[in-house]
Amino acid sequence: xxxxxxxxxxxxxxxxxxxxxxxxxxxxxxxxxxxxxxxxxxxxxxxxxxxxxxxxxxxxxxxxxxxxxxxxxxxxxxxxxxxxxxxxxxxxxxxxxxxxxxxxxxxxxxxxxxxxxxxxxxxxxxxxxxxxxxxxxxxxxxxxxxxxxxxxxxxxxxxxxxxxxxxxxxxxxxxxxxxxxxxxxxxxxxxxxxxxxxxxxxxxxxxxxxxxxxxxxxxxxxx
Length: 223
Ligand code: CDP
Known about the structure:
Elements: E1 7-12, H1 19-30, E2 33-36, H2 37-50, H3 61-66, E3 70-73, E4 76-79, E5 82-83, H4 91-101, H5 104-118, E6 122-127, H6 130-134, E7 140-145, H7 148-161, H8 169-185, E8 198-201, H9 207-220
Parallel strand pairs: 1-6, 1-7, 2-6, 7-8
Antiparallel strand pairs: 3-4, 4-5
Helix pairs in contact: 1-9, 2-4, 2-5, 4-8, 7-8
């Protein structure tokens, strides 16, 4: 299957809906670049935590952002040359990321970077605002959802696979519900379905079934 030289596929949806799993499989199948935009917000959050930057204090965000250099090489994420690929997935970062992602200046910097990385390429991006703000003219927009309970179950499973054992289902579910609320009610680029996005509920589907549905739409994109 040959796709257009430059193509953009947006996958948005709440935490744990399966976006990254699906995006990785599709990127591999269609030889596209995969960009995990959530990881970028996680990187900035990690930097804030590491440097004990308190969001409640008056801070000069633009000055702080100038000191953050983000690099993405394959599936590795670097801040100022340091590989933070594992650190950005911890519950501590997860607990603060929605607050950092609500900051206008942070979003402006990362959205610019996302557009730059995707320029002239075949790219599949996952996040919260890809189809609404980052690429409102994306070739295909998917809005992936699942019930909060199923999303929490998946997240606990993920944590277990990463050796993070002390996260119980109820805590993870509460954290997901809180993040959904923050992400969808914030002023800047809230999580919402773009009017022209295709909604898929993955609650009762495995990754392959979701990919099969999306592949049908990708195959329809003009070559
Ligand atoms: O993987 P998970 O669904 O837990 O979240 P993520 O994709 O890693 O994103 C982490 C957080 O970053 C989200 O809860 C949002 O607050 C923020 N985010 C965002 O605001 N915009 C994006 N395009 C991607 C993520």
